[in-house]
């Protein structure tokens, strides 16, 4: 008995000392910030669905200033809202901050076979980025215009039915169905519209929803359990929405591979034009070879001995997975916020309708016509300033100790941007910062904002790869709606909106009236 106690006691003391060392890290550095409790730090507050973590950052910034430190389980995070600091980390010192803050459930970014662009780092990220970028070129976006147009027609039919007789409509529900339907058609091999009957929707909603996130909480405190849970969910994907979705994507990719092989055996010539993202990824090749034996730093070194210019089967699944989630949620939220802001600013909505009437007179809206909707671009940009919906991913991991704006940052420390504070900072935007003012973008000179003060899609080399697709979808649907309807608030509209969320910041609902135009 005494031997067991002698054995266990130093292990327990060492275990406790490690977590106390993590928890006290910023205190020892003399960096102010909220402390929370040993083991958890501020994790419990940042995982509160009903009070999004990004809004917590705003509260803490008011109390502790533009740079402060927190702990999240075993993660040490510096929260910043200084544009110069952000620009230094995201752009100027990218080679020192090429990683992202990762969760143990995501696996080792260098070993996880299904790692995606959001989590990948170093050589592998450069390779995946180069192979995936052509997917979102203007040439390929034009090819899926027909798919987007067909889905717009269907959602317009559903909105007409839902709003008949002046009934209120929760436009958020329709936008989520719209974006999932498009991403299903271009990423999942879906051949027909599944709006309001899509079996994928509950699983996707579960990832962003209010349900218990015990696995995330446990893995953030005890990474070893994250590894165990990941292995379990990979073996039994039906028990976790994200792994369940990956399993569905795997079946879709396998079906396409088998179809292509069967067509080849039957002598059926493959189409010169890819059907969707699955085909684009199966055909993906890069003209750049990143293999550099002479590399002296970890960013340039390769973690693999063989360089393959094609995406692997598992990498295709990883990319389709992240495009599904990002393409579904963020675009639907951006549409919702834009609609709400137009409803609460009728003079801006009227000006936008006049532009749409002028530039899009035909029933079908073309790619070139969308590019002429300059005021709509301003509206969307300003809406994303008001509501930077996915700002929790605006972070970087320090991969090599460095100094930024006089602050020493050790390897392994995360830098998290408090985007909401920056997007509402009068020192950046002026005294009218609280005003929804699309005209602030009128000059077309965005260099001031791009120096670190405006991050709707991130910034630097890791800026969102799907930005142009998201804007195309949003402009297309808004143009069709605004030609036929005017957004108006009703007694059921939350003013201001009630915000919730973890991975993204969403309105609980966006209930509006769609009043037919005369």
Structure description:
- One of its GO terms (molecular function) is iron ion binding.
- The chain crosses the membrane at residues 6-26.
- Cytochromes P450 are a group of heme-thiolate monooxygenases. They oxidize a variety of structurally unrelated compounds, including steroids, fatty acids, and xenobiotics.
- This protein has 518 residues and is α+β, with helices and mostly antiparallel strands.
- It has one domain (2-516): Cytochrome p450 (Orthogonal Bundle), CATH 1.10.630.10.
- It is 49% helix and 8% strand.
- The protein is built from 21 helices and eleven strands.
- It has helices at residues 2-23, 25-29, 43-46, 53-64, 83-92, 122-132, 138-143, 145-163, 171-187, 201-208, 214-221, 223-235, 241-265, 277-282, 313-343, 346-359, 367-371, 374-386, 419-423, 426-429, 467-484, and strands spanning 67-72, 75-80, 168-170, 395-397, 402-404, 407-409, 414-417, 485-488, 499-500, 506-507, 511-516.
- The strands form four sheets. It has a four-stranded mixed beta sheet, with helices on both faces. The chain has a three-stranded antiparallel beta sheet with strand order 3-11-8.
- A hairpin with a 2-residue loop joins strand 1 (67-72) and strand 2.
- The radius of gyration is 24 Å and the shape is globular.
- 42% of the residues are buried.
- Mean pLDDT is 86; it is low at 288-307.
Short description:
Keywords: Heme, Iron, Membrane, Metal-binding, Monooxygenase, Oxidoreductase, Transmembrane, Transmembrane helix. By secondary structure, the protein is α+β, with helices and mostly antiparallel strands.
């Amino acid at each position: 008995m005494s031997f067991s106690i002698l054995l266990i006691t130093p292990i327990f003391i060492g275990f406790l000392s490690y977590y106390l060392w993590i928890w006290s890290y910023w205190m020892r550095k003399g960096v102010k910030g909220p402390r929370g409790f040993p083991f958890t730090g501020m994790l419990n507050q940042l995982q509160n669905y009903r009070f999004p973590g990004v809004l917590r950052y705003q509260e803490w910034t008011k109390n502790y200033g533009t740079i402060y430190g927190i702990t999240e389980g075993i993660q040490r995070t510096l929260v910043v809202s200084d544009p110069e600091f952000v620009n230094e980390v995201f752009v100027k010192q990218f080679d020192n901050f090429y990683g992202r803050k990762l969760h143990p459930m995501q696996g080792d970014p260098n070993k996880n076979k299904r790692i995606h662009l959001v989590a990948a780092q170093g050589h592998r990220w450069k390779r995946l980025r180069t192979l995936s970028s052509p997917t979102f070129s203007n040439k390929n976006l034009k090819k899926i215009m027909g798919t987007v147009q067909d889905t717009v027609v269907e959602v317009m039919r559903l909105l007409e039915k839902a709003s008949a007789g002046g009934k209120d409509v929760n436009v958020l529900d329709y936008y989520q169905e719209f974006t999932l339907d498009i991403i299903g058609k271009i990423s999942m091999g879906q051949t027909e519209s599944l709006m309001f009957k899509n079996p994928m929707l509950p699983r996707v909603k579960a990832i962003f929803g209010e349900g218990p996130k015990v696995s995330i909480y446990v893995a953030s405190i005890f990474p070893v359990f994250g590894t165990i849970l990941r292995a379990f969910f990979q073996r039994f994907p039906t028990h976790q929405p994200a792994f369940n979705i990956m399993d569905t994507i795997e079946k879709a990719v396998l079906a396409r591979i088998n179809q292509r092989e069967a067509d080849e055996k039957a002598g059926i010539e493959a189409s010169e034009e890819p059907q969707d993202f699955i085909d684009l990824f199966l055909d993906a090749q890069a003209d750049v070879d990143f293999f550099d034996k002479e590399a002296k730093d970890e960013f340039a070194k390769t973690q693999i001995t063989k360089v393959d210019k094609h995406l692997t089967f598992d990498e295709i699944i990883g990319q389709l997975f992240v495009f599904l989630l990002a393409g579904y949620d963020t675009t639907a939220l951006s549409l919702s916020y834009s609609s709400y802001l137009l409803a609460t600013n009728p003079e801006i909505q009227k000006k936008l309708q006049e532009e749409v009437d002028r530039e899009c007179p035909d029933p079908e809206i073309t790619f070139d016509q969308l590019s002429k909707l300059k005021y709509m671009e301003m509206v969307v940009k300003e809406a994303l300033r008001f509501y930077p919906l996915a700002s929790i991913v605006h972070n970087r991991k320090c991969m090599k100790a460095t100094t930024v704006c006089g602050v020493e940052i050790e390897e392994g420390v995360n830098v998290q941007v408090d985007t909401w504070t920056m997007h509402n900072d009068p020192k950046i935007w002026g005294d009218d910062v609280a005003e929804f003012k699309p005209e602030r973008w009128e000059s077309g000179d965005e260099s001031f904002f791009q120096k670190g003060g405006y991050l709707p899609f991130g910034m630097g080399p890791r800026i969102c790869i799907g930005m142009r697709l998201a804007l195309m979808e949003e402009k297309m649907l808004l143009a069709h709606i605004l030609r036929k309807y005017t957004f108006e608030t009703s007694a059921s509209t939350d003013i201001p909106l009630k915000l919730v969320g973890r991975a993204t910041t969403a309105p609980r609902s966006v209930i509006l009236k769609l009043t037919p135009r005369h």
